[in-house]
Fold this sequence. Notes:
Elements: E1 15-22, E2 25-34, H1 39-51, E3 56-60, E4 64-67, H2 69-84, E5 88-92, H3 96-105, E6 112-114, H4 117-124
Amino acid sequence: MDRGVPGSTSHRGRLTVDVQRHGASLVVTPDGELDHHTADLLREPLERSLEDGDRLLVVDCSKLEFCDSTGLNVLLGARLKAEAAGGGIHLAGMRPVVARVFEITGADGVFTLHESLADALKETAQP
């Protein structure tokens, strides 16, 4: 029985991911819950973007309602690949519930964090 809790298997469609180009940056916007059931929906566009030569990715977290350790690992893995290619991943607009996961794990210290997507795009547009 689904009780509406994160990680419930009957809500596989509860995450969508939008990808759009903004100047030199590729903006990836997950919308919904990022967990072990939905992680591949974010992993695939991040990896495809890096394979296609994008090196500067901005993940707009403003619509992300939940993130578990699997989702965190997707972002950490993409960060390592981007940095190995000479780029990076910036995270923007994190809601408090998602920011807390990053704080508890220390992951907030390895990403460049921005208050908003506009702030991230402004910084990533710098030469």
